[in-house]
């Protein structure tokens, strides 16, 4: 007999651009290939407030948002072998982690190594997905830049001597880009950020940090160690201004990977733009996602990839509203906001 409760608390977005409401809802049971996870840490992402404010992506309401989380497997569906009841796992689902229990595909769950807390595991899960897709997923529509990942044969340090620019190096995405770029051997690794984050980004692998308020083309021209061609740029901010300045400094034949779904003006055929869909659950990324998750535990265990700093918001699911407001107002620097759904009153 299962120990799992039949009901739980969840934070609902009740209608398109509507209100939030914490309510009681059934706990669903895992089907074949799925696991049911008791969520211990749920991470907040800018995507969540954008869905609420702009009414994008979701077509059916009420809905439960949130993507990136960590917890303990409490039930497994038929045929699941990679994780078992009692395992601690981290995962990212398209939505539905602003609740106390959720379902995930077992093959898209990575076991949490003992050197990571639930909070850290939740914080890194979504960034790891977005960044690995952007850099290493195959070059197909809604895929990535097709680079060789560091876990593949010949992938470690494969891009030694190739420069990369990371716009928004202190963001959750940006911190993960810097770390994966280091594993891939990119050099120099140049990032833009507020000056207060210089030391942090250098500790992750950035060789140069440019003040985000500086004129980027001028600042780049003063870097004597920079080879003339910037062939790879990862825009982890994705605003029209960051995209266009990134596109402008990108070398002919280069690749801009961007998180922003904003059309770039004056696009040229000789420059490639990869617009990121940072989810493993879309059919084009699914197989790649299974590959990433099968390597993520080891990368975290070895310290090759570290989580960004975490701020835990007290109050469980109810704290998400204030947290999303801080993200909306850009009052969060270089850290992930996390809640503990089990604390919900
Ligand atoms: N397309 C997708 O599939 C996908 C997936 C995930 C995320 N995203 C998007 O990616 C973006 C980043 O997400 P996140 O979770 O990493 O955000 P985040 O951690 O909340 O980002 C906050 C950070 O962004 C930095 N920043 C903001 N504007 C900047 C600018 N103009 N120049 C340089 N740095 C800037 C700030 O750096 P400082 O503190 O140094 O000032 C701050 O630390 C969001 O817009 C999100 O919606 C898209």
UniProtKB/TrEMBL annotation:
GO MF entries: oxidoreductase activity, acting on NAD(P)H
SMART domains assigned: PKS_ER
Entries under CDD domains matching the protein: enoyl_reductase_like (cd08249)
Residue ranges occupied by any Enoyl reductase (ER) domain in the UniProt entry: 18-338
Matches recorded under Pfam families: ADH_N, ADH_zinc_N
Extent of the signal sequence: none
Descriptive protein name: Enoyl reductase (ER) domain-containing protein
Species: Antrodiella citrinella
């Amino acid at each position: 007999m299962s120990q799992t409760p039949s009901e739980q608390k969840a934070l609902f977005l009740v209608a398109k651009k509507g209100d939030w409401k914490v309510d009681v809802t059934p706990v669903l049971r895992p089907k074949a290939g799925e696991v049911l996870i008791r969520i211990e840490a749920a991470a907040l992402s800018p995507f969540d407030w954008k869905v609420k404010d702009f009414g994008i992506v979701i077509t059916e309401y009420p809905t439960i948002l949130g993507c990136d989380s960590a917890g303990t497997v409490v039930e497994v569906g038929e045929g699941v072998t990679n994780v078992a009841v009692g395992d601690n796992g981290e995962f990212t689902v398209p939505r539905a982690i602003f609740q106390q229990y959720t379902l995930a595909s077992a093959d898209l769950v990575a076991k949490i190594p003992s050197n990571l807390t639930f909070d850290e595991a939740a914080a890194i899960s979504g960034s790891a997905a977005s960044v690995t897709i952007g850099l290493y997923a195959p070059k197909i529509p809604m895929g990535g830049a097709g680079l060789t990942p560091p876990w593949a044969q010949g992938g470690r340090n494969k891009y030694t001597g190739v420069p990369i620019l990371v716009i928004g190096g202190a963001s959750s995405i940006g911190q993960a880009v810097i770390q994966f770029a280091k594993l891939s051997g990119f050099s120099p690794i140049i990032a833009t950020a507020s000056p207060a984050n210089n030391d942090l980004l250098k500790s992750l692998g950035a060789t140069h940090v440019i003040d985000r308020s500086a004129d980027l083309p001028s600042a780049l021209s003063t870097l004597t160690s920079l080879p003339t061609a910037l062939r790879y740029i990862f825009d982890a901010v994705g605003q029209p201004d960051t995209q266009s300045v990134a596109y402008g400094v990108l070398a002919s034949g280069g690749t801009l990977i961007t998180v922003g779904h904003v059309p770039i003006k004056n696009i040229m055929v000789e420059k490639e733009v990869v617009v990121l869909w940072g989810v493993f659950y879309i059919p084009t990324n699914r197989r790649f996602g299974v590959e990433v998750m099968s390597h993520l535990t080891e990368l975290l265990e070895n310290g090759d990839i570290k989580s960004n700093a975490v701020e835990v918001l007290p109050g469980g699911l109810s704290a998400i509203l204030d947290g999303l407001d801080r993200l909306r107002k850009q009052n969060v620097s270089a850290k992930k906001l996390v809640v503990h759904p089990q604390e919900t009153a």
